[in-house]
Amino acid sequence: MADNRQDALGSHRDKPLDEAVIREFSSKVRGQLIRPKDDAYDEARAVFYGGIDRHPALIVRAADATDVSRVVALARESGLDLAVRSGGHSPAHHSTTDGGIILDLSEMKGLEIDLERRTAWAQTGLTAGEYTAAAGAHGLATGFGDTGSVGIGGITLGGGVGYLVRKHGLTIDDLLAADVVSADGELLRADAETHPDLFWAIRGGGGNFGVATRFQYRLHEVDTIVGGMLILPATPEVVASFVAEAEAAPEELSAIANVMTAPPMPFLPAEMQGQLIIMAMLVYAGEVEAGERAIALFRGLAEPIADMVKPMPYPEIYPPEEEDYHPIGSGRTMFLEAVDGAVGQTIVDYLQNSSAQMAVAQIRVLGGAMARVPAEATAFAHRGSRIMVNVAALFEHSDEAAVYEPWVTDFAAALHQGGEVGAYVGFLGEEGEARVRDAYPGSTWKRLAEIKDRYDPTNLFRLNQNIPPATHARMIEN
Ligand SMILES: Cc1cc2nc3c(=O)[nH]c(=O)nc-3n(C[C@H](O)[C@H](O)[C@H](O)COP(=O)(O)OP(=O)(O)OC[C@H]3O[C@@H](n4cnc5c(N)ncnc54)[C@H](O)[C@@H]3O)c2cc1C
């Protein structure tokens, strides 16, 4: 019985990839194969987060959807773990594996923009920054997150909360269709009419249902925005007032407040280093004068320490990133109802008492267009949540996690306001099934497990925030 259960999970039959299998496989794919003996191996196995040292048996940089289908078949037939990678930013390190296969989509960067219909088909090897730059050349945009190097694959499948969230909703609210390679290797179209169950599930359900090879998005006119970084001193009162202003602001404005100790930055006065600051990112996607008026209210909360908010083309909100930045950290994601002075005080206290290299509480004010979509319309169901908070500690060596994990856990518990904690799947670490369930409240979890049963009954796609197929879950319960 136990063996059957293992098989139902599709797990760990581990047949190593021998030379004959690799030879046969490489004759069928157009993309690049990278193996442990290759010079490119160490670079190719690295992910965004540092301190992760996994050794896959094979990395395949797929060239097209047919390659993707072949890699899925190889994983199925070998029984090896399959890590699917778009931009490599998984906080749970799911896009790498020890001994398994990495399906790396980063070479698949095709983008077709239909200016007349205001839609775009984008292959999932694109990053948010690459897509935004290309669409921005036409004064158009689809909203992603706060970081340009995040892959459109992972962020879209998780939901996508970013600088246009209050104006245009989540990334998935602009998702019109997707091409998905399912566990049996078939290329499926998922949209409102074709495989609508799959289309519902991939809008928040992560990589559980197949490999998305391309997405079709709606584009909005987003040309010049008023946006950028505003740095304020972080006192409990300023934190609370910042959140109040962001909630009261017009929907054109989306705000992210990173409350943190000031890192060494060239534009910060030396005496500010180590002091608590709010490093805010603001975007007003609307008329410039109205934007300036909305931003003035934030500038008035305290004497700004640095002010880089200005009218700019939207793509400039994603500045160039350091390629060799690979942070190591622990974090917790949650939703809160309110951030008042008392919550501000808790945040300030925890951050001041942290010995981490960097400690941060990131506050994202939600609402607007995101909240108008009914909770049951997509697998991302936290539509009524008002504020997302992510607390994190960054440190130098992965073995320091034992020191900072308890701090992160305590900090998150101190912020908890009763009821369900909730979780945004994109920011979950390796936190266990109960936390994955937090991402899918109400009937969402059950509905996802049933769809998983239909599209991936053996749980081939298990290196993710996993939703076990309903049949398997029932076997375990009985
Ligand atoms: C620095 C940083 C900033 C972030 N900022 C934001 C933000 O502002 N807003 C937000 O919403 N999220 C944000 N996130 C979270 C981010 O959206 C998720 O971690 C997302 O999964 C990363 O996508 P990726 O493609 O880069 O990662 P990957 O590690 O490549 O993928 C993550 C997982 O997604 C699945 N996956 C990826 N691509 C595919 C595909 N094509 N088909 C099937 N499955 C796939 C796989 O299960 C994979 O393990 C941020 C993360 C980081 C590290």
Question: Would you give an account of this structure?
Answer:
- With 478 residues, the protein is of the alpha+beta class.
- Helix content is 30%, strand content 23%.
- It has helices spanning 2-8, 19-26, 41-45, 65-78, 128-136, 152-158, 165-168, 196-202, 236-248, 288-299, 341-352, 369-372, 401-415, 433-439, 444-455, 470-477, and strands at 32-34, 58-61, 82-85, 101-104, 111-114, 119-123, 140-141, 175-181, 187-191, 211-218, 220-221, 224-233, 253-261, 276-284, 306-307, 310-313, 328-336, 358-365, 387-395.
- Strands 12, 13, 14, 15, 16, 17, 18 and 19 form an eight-stranded antiparallel sheet that branches.
- It is globular and about 65 Å long.
- The N and C termini lie close together (11 Å).
- It binds flavin-adenine dinucleotide.
Please render the helix and strand layout as text.
Elements lengths: L1 H7 L10 H8 L5 E3 L6 H5 L12 E4 L3 H14 L3 E4 L15 E4 L6 E4 L4 E5 L4 H9 L3 E2 L10 H7 L6 H4 L6 E7 L5 E5 L4 H7 L8 E8 L1 E2 L2 E10 L2 H13 L4 E9 L14 E9 L3 H12 L6 E2 L2 E4 L14 E9 L4 H12 L5 E8 L3 H4 L14 E9 L5 H15 L17 H7 L4 H12 L14 H8 L1
Parallel strand pairs: 2-4, 3-4
Antiparallel strand pairs: 1-2, 5-6, 6-10, 7-11, 8-9, 8-10, 12-14, 12-15, 12-16, 13-14, 13-18, 17-19, 18-19
Helix pairs in contact: 9-11, 11-13, 15-16
The chain binds flavin-adenine dinucleotide.
